[in-house]
Amino acid sequence: QSVLTQPPSASGTPGQRVTISCSGSSSNIGSNTINWYQHLPGTAPKLLIYGNDQRPSGVPDRFSGSKSGTSASLAISGLQSEDETTYYCAAWDDSLSGWVFGGGTKLTVL
Amino acid sequence: EVQLLESGGGLVQPGGSLRLSCAASGFTFSSYVMSWVRQAPGRGLEWVSGITVSGTYTYYADSVKGRFTISRDNSKNTLFLQMNSLRAKDTAVYYCAKSSSGTYYSPFGSWGQGTLVTVSS
Fold first, then answer.
1. Rounded Cα–Cα distance for residues A8 and B44 (Å)
2. Residue A42 forms beta bridges with which residues?
3. Lowest CB count within 10 Å: A56, A62, B11, B54, which one?
4. Is A42 buried (19+), middle (13-18) or exposed (0-12) by CB count in 10 A?
5. Choosing among B104, B108, B116, which should be mutated to test the A contact, i.e. which has the most A CBs within 10 A?
6. Does the beta carbon of A51 lie under 8 angstroms from any beta carbon of chain B?
7. A44-78 burial string, b = 16+ CB within 10 Å, else e?
8. Blockwise average pLDDT, block size 10, chain A, 110 residues
9. Does A100 touch chain B (CB under 8 A)?
10. Does the beta carbon of A8 lie under 8 angstroms from any beta carbon of chain B?
């Protein structure tokens, strides 16, 4: 059972906008920033969003993040087939003194 | 270009030990917090351990506390993970991850390709 809760799956058609939620608590999302990673199994994970809503250089502006209270969301607009992979949220947890991840959301582009 | 190259994975029996290494290049290794993150078969990402820039402070997930030890050699740009008393549940691909700054709560900006650890008799 992951400390952060994500839906196990999400789907959308090309061009559509999809959102992935991430729910936590006061000790993690509620008091620290949220980061999002994109991971295709067998490859190196990639930082997609950091500091709740910041994009590293090279990440398309189709990807956006937001946070409210103890929840956060990743939005992907203009969905493309190459977006089909797994997405993870993560935050530092003050109570655990460590990083906690969501269980991952596998995105399918129909 | 940042490069992180893990090594040391392999097959080990339950109760055994293994030492992972992560050779870093392309950045000033001694200026960044480093971590290990793993992914068990069919499961999600799980943070394992982290170490501050000088190695003074170390952090561990409850699942490995007391069994794993993280360390670093800044003179050789290398991160280590000593894994003792290994269990079947430790079977996973282990990734070396570089934080984006020298603070422990900065995100993982770069990752290695991972090394597979299999604990089985």
1. 10
2. none
3. B54
4. exposed
5. B108
6. yes
7. ebbbbbbebbebeeebeeebbbebeebbbbbebee
8. 95 97 97 97 93 96 97 98 97 96 97
9. yes
10. no
B1-16 pLDDT tens trace: 999 999 999 999 999 9
Which two tokens mark B33?
Answer: 């917090």
Nearest to A37 by CA among A47, A28, A29: A47
Assigned token pair, A79? 């969905």
Q: Which residues of B touch A47 (CB under 8 A)?
A: 100, 107-110
Write the CB contacts of B66 (distance below 8 Å, at least 6 apart in sequence): none
pLDDT one-digit tens code per residue, B21-61:
999 999 999 999 999 999 999 999 999 999 999 999 999 99
Distance CA A84, CA A6 (A): 16
Q: E strands, B1-121, where? A: 3-7, 10-12, 18-25, 34-39, 45-51, 58-60, 68-73, 78-83, 92-99, 108-111, 115-119
